[in-house]
Specification:
By secondary structure, the chain is mainly alpha-helical. About 55% of the residues lie in helices and about 10% in strands. It has two domains: about 5-65 and about 450-485; about 70-435, no CATH class. Helix 2 (about 65-95) packs parallel to helix 5 (about 195-210) and helix 6 runs antiparallel to helix 10.
Length: about 475
């Protein structure tokens, strides 16, 4: 080997060592950076004629496992879907309250029953009659508040759908822009690893809203397809459209056109959480809250309100009631009509005839709503009948409840149990999805930056640098000696 070849080898070695040190430094400094993938330097030997002339850098490769990343993104979507639905059910369960809590729906029914029993023991007591009125008003208000919370949840979901659709559209366009930047950088021979990291972060964010599959294209570009087969990115971003509404009432649904669905490139798509083009992520979860979970809870709450009204809207409880008149509880002041059950829980109110604040007479709780003059203050028959009306077991006429006979308290407890049952099922699914997500993240991290390994590589780089520097130093000394001899 000539002195020139030896010097060329050493100089190329120094260049490679310098580049390798930069790669190790980048790996260590970004070890905790989310979305960063470990880099490895690729080398190749150089030859000049039949002799080696050193080593050169082919490039810096970004270490990823697309299969694991794809599975992890799908798990991200499953977690986001479950968390979105759980947040709604948990919030509504808290609004209804556990049956053993005094402030719960069941607790208010028990309070009304207790106040009726106490008033029956002393029917002449105005204080106890006032307690009955207060308990009835509190119960009606509790049902009203619960119904309002469902409307609030639907409106919040509709607003979040709009925000998610806007973010999704912007993110898809960002992927397209990064695709273009990566293609241009590849064509110019620049390092594109940082752009690839940034694109991966954007795709990860998209997958929480709508799980996507990443399909490789030429020049490190990608296309994105949803699990349901919708094309979101392929040379250009899909057009995502959704129109939020200012307010939502129980009669407004996606089916009757009062609420907006989602369109991709102008075509309506199914918004179901289990199947369809956007299934599996937080966006599908928000649609499920707005269009399925909250309306189903509303139907059941209306059934509870109907059951309560019908228990008192009968002459067997209050013989003084005229035909077609409202009982203790009313539909916004009127008698309940079975054909107008929708949203009854929002209109439920206590009969104004017994409320002094509305020019009513408190004694009518005891003597009957149809009476025109105060009767025997010691007669507790109607008070006893009203307490028994709450205690009696009867079938529920609507709401999808089973045909089992229930008291008013039993019905409200069953309603809460149904909400809790759905919540527990979703939480069980979330536990599985979260465990799978964490496992896949761990696998990704195992292929990530190991700082101990990187520091070991740095020691080898240092040794290589010293060796190449020693060769150059030796060549320099040899040349100096030759020059002196000449």
């Amino acid at each position: 080997m000539s002195i020139g070849n030896a010097l060329s080898n050493a100089l190329s070695g120094l260049n490679v060592v310098s580049r390798a040190a930069d790669v190790v430094s980048a790996n260590v400094s970004n070890a905790m950076t989310e979305g960063y993938s470990r880099r490895d330097i690729e080398l190749t030997s150089q030859t000049l004629g039949q002799f080696g002339s050193g080593v050169s850098v082919v490039g810096v490769t970004r270490q990823t496992d697309p299969v694991v990343t794809g599975e992890r993104r799908f798990a991200d979507g499953e977690v986001a879907l479950a968390e979105t639905q759980i947040a709604f059910l948990d919030g509504f369960a808290r609004t209804i309250g556990q049956p053993d809590e005094p402030s719960s729906l069941s607790g208010h029914i028990v309070s009304l029953e207790t106040s009726l029993i106490e008033a029956a023991s002393r029917p002449e007591s105005e204080t106890r009659l006032q307690s009955v009125l207060y308990a009835a008003q509190s119960l009606a208000e509790k049902i009203n508040t619960s119904a309002d919370s469902l409307m609030d949840a639907r409106m919040a979901a509709d607003k979040d759908i709009g925000s998610s659709a806007e973010f999704l559209q912007a993110s898809l366009q960002q992927v397209v822009d990064l695709n273009v930047a990566i293609r241009q950088s590849v064509s110019s021979g620049y390092d594109v690893n940082s752009l690839l990291d940034q694109r991966q972060k954007v795709v990860d964010q998209i997958s929480q809203i709508v799980p996507v599959k990443e399909i490789p294209r030429e020049n490190n570009m990608i296309a994105l397809y949803t699990e349901g087969g919708a094309i979101l990115v392929d040379s250009k971003a899909a057009s995502i459209e959704f129109t939020p509404v200012a307010t939502i009432t129980p009669d407004m649904t996606l089916a009757n056109g009062a609420l907006s669905g989602l369109t991709i490139n102008g075509q309506p798509v199914s918004t179901g959480s289990d199947r369809g083009p956007i299934s599996g992520g937080s966006l599908a979860g928000l649609f499920n809250v707005r269009d399925v979970l909250a309306p189903e809870a509303q139907v059941k709450l209306d059934a509870v309100a109907r059951d309560l009204v019908e228990r008192f809207q009968t002459v067997s409880v209050d013989p003084t009631l005229p035909t077609g008149a409202a009982g203790l509880f009313t539909d916004n002041g009127a008698a309940f009509d079975a054909q107008n059950e929708e949203s009854l829980s929002r209109r439920l109110s206590v009969n104004a005839l017994i409320d002094p604040a509305q020019s009513g007479d408190l004694w009518k709780i005891r003597d009957g709503l149809g009476t025109t003059a105060e009767g025997d203050q010691g007669n507790a028959s109607i008070l006893i009948a009203m307490a028994e009306a709450l205690q009696n077991s009867k079938a529920v006429g609507s709401g999808g409840f089973s045909s089992a006979l229930r008291s008013a308290t039993h019905l409200s407890s069953d309603f809460y149990s149904m909400i809790e049952g759905d919540l527990l099922n979703l939480e069980a699914g979330l536990s599985f999805s979260a465990a799978r997500q964490e496992n896949l993240k761990s696998i990704e991290l195992e292929a990530g930056v190991d700082t101990d390994y990187e520091m070991q590589k740095l020691l080898l780089i240092e040794q290589s640098y010293a060796a190449n520097a020693k060769v150059i130093e030796s060549i320099n000394a040899l040349l100096d000696d030759l020059i002196r001899r000449l």
